[in-house]
């Protein structure tokens, strides 16, 4: 049974069609990379999966439950998201950014949430930065906090929306290393990225979107094969 199934999804903004008849499925522990030109609908597709954006028609199933029947808090727990611009709260420390969701969504006590946050900060190599505010961290460190925040919720699926696109080139590697470790550890990941090295090494499946349609989909060895 697929963990995620996107079935004939259409989405427009006003009169502008953005996704046309998009269908695909993902099994657990799979890494799917979505590539395509700017404006092809990649980010919109991710946002439909966690209901940051509503679809016009079609269905999206998470573990055989249509996502519109899943409680919003539950969906937020089960589907994590890592954003291009990190989306950290500037007034909260690294630890505070992680404990917020653990307390609000999972209902953990403050000490439980803090212990869990510190554990996940350690996993992304930021054990010493728990008390730092986003402005005191590099972009690569901020994005690793973003990943730790997603992971701490123990999600079934994590969406990555161009997680390295806002980073200086020398900071991209530290984020990709964390993502590669997650992929090897069996995390189910749906990633929009331009990092073809990551796609080639970590993806089980690569999907090409163009003008809101899936134009090609397959394993990297098939899609990167020279003609
Ligand atoms: P990509 O991630 O592939 O760059 P997007 O999903 O961000 O593509 O955008 C696809 C198209 O939808 C673009 O033309 C973009 O301008 C438009 N779009 C995205 N979000 C919105 C929105 N909230 N309102 C109106 N148009 C949007
Ligand atoms: P990205 O390309 O990184 O996905 P964008 O810069 O396209 O991001 O969009 C940033 C935000 O603005 C998103 O929330 C997106 O939905 C929204 N947006 C994008 N294009 C439009 C648009 N044409 N009209 C209104 N909102 C838009």
Automatic annotation (TrEMBL):
Subcellular location: Cell membrane
Keyword match Nucleotide-binding: yes
Stretches assigned to the ABC transporter domain: 4-227
Gene Ontology biological-process entries: amino acid transport
PROSITE patterns assigned to the protein according to its UniProt record, in alphabetical order: ABC_TRANSPORTER_1 (PS00211), ABC_TRANSPORTER_2 (PS50893)
Presence of keyword Ribonucleoprotein: no
Family to which the UniProt record says this protein belongs: Belongs to the ABC transporter superfamily.
Main location: membrane
Topology in the lipid bilayer: Peripheral membrane protein
Name of the protein described by the UniProt record: Amino acid ABC transporter ATP-binding protein
Cross-referenced SMART domains: AAA (SM00382)
Residue ranges the record marks as coiled coil: none
InterPro entries listed in its UniProt record: AAA+_ATPase, ABC_ATPase_HisP-typ, ABC_transporter-like_ATP-bd, ABC_transporter-like_CS, MetN_ABC_transporter-like, P-loop_NTPase
């Amino acid at each position: 049974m697929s963990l995620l199934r996107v079935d004939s999804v259409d989405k427009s903004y006003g009169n502008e069609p953005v996704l046309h008849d998009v269908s695909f499925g993902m099994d657990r522990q799979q890494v799917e990379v979505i590539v395509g030109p700017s404006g092809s609908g990649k980010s919109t597709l991710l946002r439909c999966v966690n209901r940051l954006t509503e679809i016009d028609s079609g269905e999206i199933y998470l573990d055989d439950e249509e996502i519109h029947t899943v409680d919003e808090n539950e969906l937020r727990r089960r589907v994590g998201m890592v954003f291009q611009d990190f989306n950290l709260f500037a007034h909260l420390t690294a630890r505070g950014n992680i404990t917020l969701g653990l307390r609000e969504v999972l209902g953990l006590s403050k000490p439980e949430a803090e212990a869990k946050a510190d554990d996940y900060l350690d996993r992304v190599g930021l054990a010493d930065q728990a008390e730092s505010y986003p402005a005191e961290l590099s972009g690569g460190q901020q994005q690793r906090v973003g990943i730790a925040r997603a992971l701490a919720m123990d999600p079934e699926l994590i969406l990555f929306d161009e997680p390295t696109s806002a980073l200086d080139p020398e900071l991209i590697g530290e984020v990709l290393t964390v993502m590669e470790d997650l992929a090897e550890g069996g995390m189910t990941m749906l990633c929009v990225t331009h990092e073809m090295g990551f796609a080639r090494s970590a993806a089980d499946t690569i999907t090409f979107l163009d003008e809101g349609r899936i134009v090609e989909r397959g394993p990297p060895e098939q899609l990167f094969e020279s003609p």
